[in-house]
Amino acid sequence: MTRPYVSIIIPVYNEEKTLQPLMERLYPVAAGLQKPFEIIFTNDGSRDRSLEILRSYVAQYPGVKVVEFNGNFGQHMAILAAFERSSGEIVITLDADLQNPPEEIPRMIAEIEKGHDVVGTIRKKRQDPLFRRVASRIVNITTNKMTGMQMSDYGCMLRAYHRNIIDNINQCGESTTFIPALAQTFSSNPTEIMVGHEERTLGESKYSFYRLIRLNFDLMTGFSLVPLQLFALLGIITSFLAVAFAVLLFVRRFMIGAEVEGVFTLFAILFFFIGIIIFGIGIVGEYVGRIYQEVRKRPRYVVRKTYGFEEP
């Protein structure tokens, strides 16, 4: 078979309602490229009919392939599994929820062909609740400051990568990662474009508030030591303030005398510093936890079966 020029990768988790509308829009776009292509779906342990539908697409649509996970390993692991099995010179990642229109794919390919090795996207007129938009904005600004990267929209998975970037990503064996940031570390000529964003009308978001927090912790602790360095700096400043406060109390005792007033103020200050200590221990725990996950050397994901790939 002709080697694909474009690989389109889509992680799927309980998306039976969106798969058919997705294929009705995606496949004409891929066929309209007039170049060999493959569409790789990774079924990330779906509990609905997603796998059954995807398997039917393998027989129905030439170029469609499916990776079936043994369980739910997460969106980024699903994408990494497809990266390892993709062969296109240009690789596109796309969510299955149709919030990012597949019609934007030709524009992204054109940017790669201009010489860019990573094409990021910025969601125009984002159709998400206000809370998620504000939280995403805060995360984008904070992460850029901590990692030194310049990405405008970390949460948008509609992205394009040159094969060289994918080959470098495939050499990384870390158990938790954030693909857009990882690709950015290998990129020499990235760019960003504005893309459309649509309201989700079918299915439901798979990212709960807790999962979003976990994802952002993976992003910050996986690509920067700044949280640890900031906590160390805060510890130094706190130590100096504590010494200054102790000197102040010592001088006050000799000048004014002993008193019991202000006990609750001291308690408030004490609880504040205890909170800082607990927060710092949590940050250290995040890094230690990542080390623990890496040294166990467990598989990042387990592939049960693949469909549509050439057998060796």
From TrEMBL:
CDD domains: DPM1_like_bac. The chain crosses the membrane at residues 230-251, 263-288. The keyword Methyltransferase does not apply. InterPro entries: Glyco_trans_2-like (IPR001173), Glycosyltransferase_2 (IPR050256), Nucleotide-diphossugar_trans (IPR029044). Gene3D superfamilies: Spore Coat Polysaccharide Biosynthesis Protein SpsA, Chain A. Keywords: Cell membrane, Glycosyltransferase, Lipopolysaccharide biosynthesis, Membrane, Transferase, Transmembrane, Transmembrane helix. Pfam families: Glycos_transf_2 (PF00535). Residues 7-167 form the Glycosyltransferase 2-like domain. SUPFAM superfamilies: Nucleotide-diphospho-sugar transferases. It comes from the Bacteria. One of its GO terms (molecular function) is undecaprenyl-phosphate 4-deoxy-4-formamido-L-arabinose transferase activity. Its EC number is 2.4.2.53. This is Undecaprenyl-phosphate 4-deoxy-4-formamido-L-arabinose transferase. It comes from Trichlorobacter ammonificans. The gene is arnC.
